[in-house]
Structures are given as C-alpha cells and as structure tokens.
Amino acid sequence: MVNNSKSFHNNIETLISVGKSLFKKGHLFEAGEKFYKAIKLDGKCHEAWFYLGIINYKIEKINQSKICFEEYLKMNTKHHIPFYYLGKIYFELDDFELAKEMFEKVFQLKPDFIDVLSKYPKELKLFNKMYNQIKKHDKIRNKLKKERPFSNPLLYLPNNKKFPYKAMNELAKRTHRKKRVNSKSTNEEIHSLYKELAEIFHPDRNDVESEELIKYLNNTYDEIKKRRDLT
Questions:
Q1: 65 in a domain, yes or no?
Q2: Are 201 and 154 spatial neighbours (Cβ–Cβ below 8 Å)?
Q3: Contact between 154 and 119 (Cβ < 8 Å)
Q4: How far apart are CA 118 and CA 24, in angstroms?
Q5: Residues of the domain holding 106
Q6: Contact 53, 70 (CB under 8 A)
Q7: Do residue 114 and residue 90 come from a single domain?
Q8: 127 in a domain, yes or no?
Q9: Do 178 and 189 touch, CB atoms closer than 8 A?
C-alpha cells in the first residue's frame, strides 16, 4: 500500500517535472497535456492548475485560464502571479472593477511588483495601459455617481433584447457576483445566476428600484430562453 502511494506521487511529480521542462521550451500543448494528466490523478495538484492557467492564457483560452487560476487560489492565495493573470483576464472581459481588485491583491502580496515588471518592457507597457484605462473608468464612474445619485436604476444597463448575456453580466457585476455567462454557458449555469440575482432583486413593494430591476432581469432571462428555444 505504501509502495502504491509512493508510486502515485512519483507519477504526479514526473508529470509536473516533464510538463515544466516542455513549458520552458515553449511546447505549450505538450506541456498542457502533462499538467492535465497530473490534475486527473490529483485534482488538488495546485502546481498543475497554475501552469495550465498560464498555458490557457497564452493560447487565448481565457475562460479556461480563469477557471484554472480560480482552482489554484482555492488551495494557495499567497502567490501574486495568479492574481495578476486574473487581473488581465477580467480586464479583457471588460470587468474593470474585478481587474482592479486583482491588481490590488498583487501589490499587497508583492509590493515591488513594478520593479519586477520593469525587467519585461512589453509586460510593463501592457500593465500601464490597463492601469490607465481602469483609472479612467473609475473617474467616469465616480463622476456619474456624483451627478446622478438618485438616477434611474436602469441607466447605463445594456439593451437586454439585443445583448441579454451582457445585460445579465452587468447585473451580476453591479451586485459583486463573480459568476458570468455567455452563449456557450450551460442552461444550468444561466439559471443558477438568474436565481441568485432574482433573490437579490426580489421586490419590496415599497422599493421602486427593486421592482424595475427584477422586471429587467426577468425580461433578460426570457430573451436568453428564446434564443435557446427553452420554455
């Protein structure tokens, strides 16, 4: 039994070692296969999740990359790199608030992060671009809050007939939910987010804002169901 256990761990260590070697040589797909096999053997192999997250990001599979880094962070929240990648991912998904949150976490864990980035001019240039756009977004957002403190709750929400997925994601963003949906999401995933939002926006009869938002949410969900030919 002890030998079997030792052999099991040796197999995982070998897969990780070979995967890292392939990764350093730029053989991303082959490396990814090794890390994936390691995860199949042990779903809590955080090192495999880490490298698989980077590989998926490099081959532009950002949703898969996001899942990998989220899995990694369930086991280890002391490493700044996963937060940096998640910041870049949320930025690409136009979720500037979560991107900012991730980048702030990076600097909490690694105060000299800019010094590290300065060794990689292209990456530093990209980070500065993201940072400036997030800062600009914050200024506009704060200005709107000051100018329209009691504005229509539906203001600045997407047209839910044309962009139902974007509309549902905007509601999730407003309520600080991390879940997001798109045309490739399963019906269960979409229903789960809808149910979560419906509980948040459940209307108090004296709360006009809640009534308007629940109506908007229901119309959004109905539009998604139409597109999927669901009843």
A1: no
A2: no
A3: no
A4: 21
A5: 77-151
A6: no
A7: yes
A8: yes
A9: no
In degrees and rounded to multiples of 5, residue 135 shows phi and psi of -60, -40
In whole angstroms, give the CA distance from residue 109 to residue 102: 11
Residues 131 and 98 in one domain: yes
DSSP letter, residue 204: P
pLDDT tens series, the chain, 231 aa: 344 555 656 688 999 999 999 999 999 999 999 999 999 999 899 999 999 999 999 999 999 999 999 999 999 999 999 999 999 999 998 888 899 999 999 999 999 999 889 899 999 999 998 988 888 877 766 655 554 444 556 766 888 888 999 999 988 888 778 889 998 899 999 999 999 888 887 765 445 466 788 888 999 999 999 888 765
Does residue 49 share a domain with residue 27?
A: yes
Q: How far is CA 18 from CA 25, 35, 46, 71, 155, in A?
A: 11, 9, 16, 22, 53
- What total of structural domains would you count in the chain? 3
Are 84 and 142 within one domain? yes
> Does 49 reside within a domain?
yes
Which of 11, 31, 58 corresponds to the end of one domain?
58
Are residues 88 and 42 part of one domain?
A: no
pTM: 0.59
CA distances from 159 to 163, 217, 218, 220 (A): 6, 11, 13, 9
Q: Burial of 57 by CB count in 10 Å (0-12 exposed, 13-18 middle, 19+ buried)?
A: buried
